[in-house]
Design goal:
Number of domains: 1
Mean pLDDT: 86
Number of strands: 5
Distance between the termini: 23 Å
Oligomer: single chain
Strand content: 15-25%
Structural class: alpha/beta
CATH class: Alpha Beta
CATH topology: Glutaredoxin
């Protein structure tokens, strides 16, 4: 961990590799697919609003043990680096009430935005084929 402490972008890269449900290979200056979703509180988030920041988009599900295991690591990164511009967005394909109930039972709070993609339209645009 000491190595990551000196190089925060290495930590962010490792989190992105660990937390991404799938990688999108982009050539040139191809942008990520659009992402406009409401979080569990009803606040809308757009990937466009975070332009210029480092954004980790993590597709996850309450029924996916590895996905749940990585939430505290994402929270730690969010707490540590958000002042430097890190944005963490967790996207679930489940219904809001299922996700909210699940998060309330976790032993620690998740404070980064948890977005709801109930119909998986965004997940399909991002070519998510499985979790984790």
């Amino acid at each position: 961990m000491r190595r990551f402490g000196r190089h925060p972008f290495l930590l962010m890269a490792a989190l992105a590799a660990f937390g991404a449900g799938a990688w999108l290979w982009s050539e040139g200056n191809e942008s990520a697919p659009s992402l406009v979703l409401a979080d569990i509180r009803g606040v809308e988030h757009s990937l466009e609003q975070y332009r210029g920041k480092v954004v980790v988009v993590n597709f996850w599900a309450t029924w996916c043990p590895p996905c749940v295991e990585e939430l505290p690591s994402l929270e730690n990164a969010w707490q540590r680096y958000r002042q430097q511009g890190l944005v963490v967005l967790a996207v679930s394909g489940e219904e809001s009430d299922v996700v909210t109930s699940f998060l309330e039972r976790l032993p620690s709070d998740i404070t980064f935005p948890v977005l709801i993609d109930g119909d998986m339209k965004s997940g399909n645009r991002w070519q998510i084929r499985g979790l984790p």
